[in-house]
Design goal:
It is built from 14 helices and 25 strands. The chain is α/β, with parallel strands linked by helices and 485 residues long. Among the domains are: 184 residues, ANL, N-terminal domain (Rossmann fold); 97 residues, ANL, C-terminal domain (GMP Synthetase, Chain A, domain 3, 2-Layer Sandwich), CATH 3.30.300. A hairpin with a 3-residue loop joins strand 13 and strand 14. It starts with 6 loop residues before the first helix and ends with a helix. Its EC number is 6.2.1.-.
Length: 485
């Protein structure tokens, strides 16, 4: 197959910027030299762990390993000892790659270590990865493990190439684009899309290290063209815009604003567009599938949807018995199933879980619930396990109720779950962070607000007021924590 990173050998000039992390930067020439030197130290390794700190060493290490045909296991620097021990035992890497100054935790102590120093030593020959098979493992990314120990999703080389090329088609992504983000590099959003994506296109990435609205404004006003973020980040942007003209100018001048990893509330869409004239594009993917759909940069602005299937991706909605949803009418809820070159090949060492994840004819069961408009646009309503509420004979997606709650001026943040109800089967429960903690909106007020916007059967029957919603590293609300609380 073609190289994953053609820009490193026959793309832009060697002095073209490739990576910038704070004050540290690498040109394409420097990246090629550094990656070549690291690749030379991999020896016969078949699989390596990478300490995925938000630093250029991570980008160099991953690039070198992929060019050398070595599978990468990105490690979250925030992982606890038990989780880290499980990942290392399950994936059995031959080496751990990290920056020279990184202090690694005890579970990594028994592994041989290769220091990654972008500025040290003579460059080695850059491996030619064009002879690699497209089905060869590229990344093994561990899922969040909400129903047991994390599972390692094996992503082949073709999945990376297919997703990044499909997004280039949908977003008009070229080597002239400069991407800014502050996403972690142990997850597919920040690593595959946010780092490998620019390198595959021959463009550049500027990593903020830590997300701030000031950092976003600075980089977009200094030539960056694209911003990737998660809903928490865009919510902070929306909150800051009224008092920050530099941030308004920055977003107004951006070519593309992309949100992912969870649904962006419609209210934040509207506030950003009203202040800047720019819309935020949403896309839908997951660790096992990389990207499945996106709103196109040249398509219709439709807040609340994740667009249409990307080139090469098949998508369908199915009923609980596995039969296809009869009609795409924008109302009927079904589980998303997908097929395409973007999919993972297996859960490492888990043939049982792999078999359970696919239908007999090769469709992957995502566990995500959605409705689909007649023209093909998809709107996610939540996870089957946590966000599908069956109340009074209706199937209700938590996401649409959350969006309605967020339109209430007294609600700063909201999450919706279901709980058992003797009469309804399940009742809708709202978890609300009030805009004014001294005057939180009550149940009657919020139930009436939702009923007027959606339908009476979708109104919350219980409201809990919180100081904050529990979130994970990617900004997703941890609903199981709400239920335990």
């Amino acid at each position: 197959m073609p190289s994953l990173f053609p820009a490193l050998t026959d793309g832009p000039a060697a002095d073209r910027p490739a990576l910038r992390f704070g004050e540290r930067s690498l040109t394409y020439g420097e990246l090629a030299a550094a990656a070549g030197a690291v690749a030379a130290g991999l020896g016969r390794a078949r699989r390596v762990a990478v300490w995925a700190a938000p630093a250029p060493e991570t980008a160099v290490a991953v690039t070198a390993a992929l060019l050398a045909g070595v599978a990468v296991v990105p490690l979250n620097p925030g992982s606890g000892g038990k989780e880290l021990g499980h990942i290392l035992s399950d994936s059995a890497p031959d080496l751990v790659l990290a920056g020279p100054g990184e202090e690694l935790p005890a579970p990594l102590g028994a592994l041989p270590r290769l220091d990654v120093d972008p500025a040290a030593g003579a460059p080695g020959a850059l491996p030619d990865d064009r002879a690699r098979d497209e089905g060869d493992p590229a990344l093994i990314v561990y899922t969040s493990g909400t129903t047991g120990p994390p599972k390692g999703a094996v992503l082949p080389r073709r999945a990376l190439a297919a997703t990044l090329d499909a997004l280039a088609d949908a977003w008009g992504w070229t080597g002239e684009d400069v991407l800014v983000h502050g996403l972690p590099l142990f997850h597919v959003h920040g690593l595959v899309l946010g780092t490998l994506g620019p390198l595959r296109r021959g463009g550049s990435v500027r990593h903020l290290g830590r997300f701030t609205t000031g950092g976003v404004a600075r980089e977009l006003n200094d030539g960056a063209t694209m911003l990737f973020g998660v809903p928490t980040m865009y919510h902070r942007i929306a909150e800051a815009l009224p008092a920050d003209p530099e941030l308004v100018r920055a977003l107004a001048g951006a070519r593309l604003l992309v949100s992912g990893s969870a649904a962006l509330p419609v209210h934040d869409h509207e506030r950003i567009t009203a202040a800047t004239g720019r819309r935020v594009v949403e896309r839908y993917g997951m660790t096992e599938t990389l990207m499945n759909t996106s709103v196109r940069a040249d398509g219709e602005a439709r807040p609340g949807t994740v667009g249409v299937p990307l080139p090469g991706v098949e998508l369908r909605l199915v009923e609980e018995d596995g039969s296809p949803v009869a009609a795409y009418d924008g109302e009927t809820v079904g589980e998303i199933q997908v097929r395409g070159p973007n999919l993972f090949t297996a859960y490492l060492n888990r043939p049982d879980a792999t078999a359970a994840a696919f239908t007999a004819d090769g469709w992957f069961r995502t566990g995500d619930m959605a409705v689909r408009d007649p023209d093909g646009h998809v709107r996610i309503v939540g996870r089957k396990a946590t966000d599908l509420i069956k109340s009074g004979g209706y199937k209700i997606g938590a996401g649409e109720v959350e969006n309605a709650l967020l339109e209430h001026p007294g609600v700063r943040e909201a999450a919706v779950t279901g709980e058992p109800d003797a009469d309804l089967g399940e009742r809708i429960v709202a978890w609300v962070v009030p805009a004014d903690p001294q005057a939180p909106p009550g149940l009657e007020e919020l139930a009436g607000h939702v009923a007027r916007r959606l339908a009476p059967h979708k109104r919350p029957r219980v409201v809990h007021h919180l100081d904050a919603l529990p979130r994970n590293d990617m900004g997703k609300i941890m609903k199981r924590a709400l239920r335990r609380g």
